[in-house]
Amino acid sequence: MTKDNLIHQAGMSRRTFLQVTGAGLVTATALGATGLRARAEAYGKFTWISPRGTLEVLDDYPYWAAKKAGYFDGLDTDMQPGPSDGTATVKFVDVGQADMGFPSPGVFSFAIQNGMKLKSVFHMGARDTFSIAFRKGEGSNDLKKLEGKTILLGSAAWQSITDPLLAAQGVDIKKVKYVEAGWPTWGTALAGGQGDAALSWEGLRAEWIAKGLDFEYWLGVKNSKLPANTFVVRAADLEDPDKKAFLEKYLRGWAMGLEFGYQNPRAAVEAVFEQFPTLAKNLGPELGTTSILQQINVFRGDMDKRGGWGSHDMASWQGFFDEIHKIGQITNPVKAEDVCSNDLIPAANDFDKAKVKADADGVKLSEGFAALDVDKIKAHLFDSAVK
């Protein structure tokens, strides 16, 4: 790694944001009018954009399960991987090249900080999905020990994720260094002895094992009260009755896919594997099911206290916005209710849960998946946590 890769400051300035934008292949200026799709009524093809630069992951299993089951009911939907630049998922929505993005709260906050008129409408990550990976024997549950150390990131934009996570645990983030080790190589860099730790998340832990990357983790899902990734749209779309109705129907498909995965996680994995045979080959049934179970835990949260799939916990979001304002990640206070909305949640969850359960239970699993003991996998989901 060169010195140019080091990010020393705790916050990311507008200048840095624009530099990351320039490296991300697409900018609002570069797009111009030709990049914007005019819509005569509601949406044409509705485009969702990934925050990871790839779709060949299990993270989006609700979509693939719902699509296979016919839950999008004739809607013209599209999934795009986008560039690996961590801020692309909000930039594309802002300028009209995509209709919905899936940013982390930190990247969402940068969108707000940079004047993008976006709103969170479906909170996928009810629990904090993010974790800190360490080489075996080097981890700690006291993240203050990371002061003076170096954390590896796949994208410079991920500092917006890591800074508030560390600050909420009492870490002086000015004493932490970051290295942009690249996507998808930052985990390999950690295993190779570079840096002291790396950002990770639920689901990815299982995928890293498939690549021979065996780490121990400080788990946000166990230790953090911050929210995780969410679906954002242009705020103006919520003011258009036709677009709002479309969004409700589209998000109902995702909610049904989430319910399907909860009822039969193995069938949801198979739906993804059918879409991406290379992913199926790399992971296999057991690690694929492990990955999806990690994510179901994050996406479901404590459903007894939620208003359904996608519901925002405004107290959690307000705590996040207060934290990032305190550390200077945003310059002005943000009121959670101004940028997060539960208006679409009742309609999104208005579906026949018994039918979805019957659909999920009725799937005939392949031999490899049918042989798995799901309860046994659940019992060992957190074995890699720092002891």
UniProtKB/TrEMBL annotation:
This is ABC transporter substrate-binding protein. It comes from Mesorhizobium australicum.
